[in-house]
C-alpha cells in the first residue's frame, strides 16, 4: 500500500498535470497574440531529483508512530510544479513563439499522463476500501 508520502507524490503529480493542461490551453489561446511568449510546466525533473535524493541518501528510513516523536530519515516535502518560459527556438513573424503542433502533442501526452495518475490514485483508494470492509467478507 501507499504511505502518505507516496500519496502526496500522486497528489502533486495530479496538480502538475492540471497546471500543465491550463498552461498549454493558455498557450493555444494566445497563438495569434503578437509578442506572446509560451510557457511550460517543469515538474518531473524536480520530482526525479527529490526521489533520487530520498532513495540514494544511504540513510536508514523509518516511520514515526506518533507525531511527537523525533523525525528520522528524510522528511522533506514533495516537489512543486513551476511555470517557466518555454525555451524554444520557434518564433513567428509576429514575435509569437507558440507552435501549434508542439502544443497539441504536449496536450495529448499530458492527458495520457493524467489518466494514468487518476487510475493509480483510484486503485489506491479501492485497496483502502477493501481493507476497511474486511477484504470482502
Please tell me about this protein's structure.
- 53% of the residues lie in helices and 6% in strands.
- With 137 residues, it is mostly helical.
- Helix 1 packs antiparallel against helix 3.
- The model has no long low-confidence stretch (mean pLDDT 85).
Number of helices: 3
Any low-confidence stretches, pLDDT <50, length ≥5? Answer: none
Strand order in space, largest sheet: 1-2
Number of strands: 2
What is the helical fraction, as a range of percent?
40-55%
Instruction: Give the SSE string.
Output: HEHEH
Main sheet: strands, sense, barrel:
2 strands, antiparallel
Strand content: 5-15%
Compute the separation of the termini in Å: 20 Å
Average of pLDDT = 85
Which structural class do you get from the secondary structure elements?
A: mainly alpha
Query: How many discrete structural domains?
Result: 1
Which shape, going by the Cα principal axes? elongated
The rounded Rg comes to 20 Å
Amino acid at each position: 500500500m501507499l504511505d502518505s508520502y507516496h500519496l502526496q507524490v500522486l497528489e502533486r503529480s495530479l496538480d502538475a498535470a492540471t497546471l500543465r493542461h491550463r498552461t498549454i490551453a493558455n498557450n493555444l489561446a494566445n497563438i495569434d497574440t503578437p509578442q506572446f511568449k509560451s510557457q511550460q510546466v517543469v515538474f518531473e525533473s524536480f520530482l526525479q531529483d527529490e526521489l533520487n535524493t530520498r532513495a540514494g541518501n544511504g540513510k536508514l528510513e523509518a516511520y514515526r508512530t506518533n507525531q511527537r516523536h523525533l523525525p528520522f530519515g528524510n522528511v522533506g516535502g514533495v516537489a512543486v510544479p513551476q511555470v517557466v518560459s518555454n525555451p524554444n527556438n520557434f518564433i513567428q513573424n509576429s514575435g509569437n513563439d507558440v507552435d501549434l503542433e508542439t502544443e497539441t502533442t504536449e496536450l495529448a501526452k499530458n492527458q495520457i499522463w493524467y489518466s494514468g495518475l487518476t487510475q493509480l490514485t483510484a486503485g489506491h483508494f479501492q485497496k483502502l476500501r477493501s481493507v476497511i470492509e474486511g477484504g470482502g467478507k
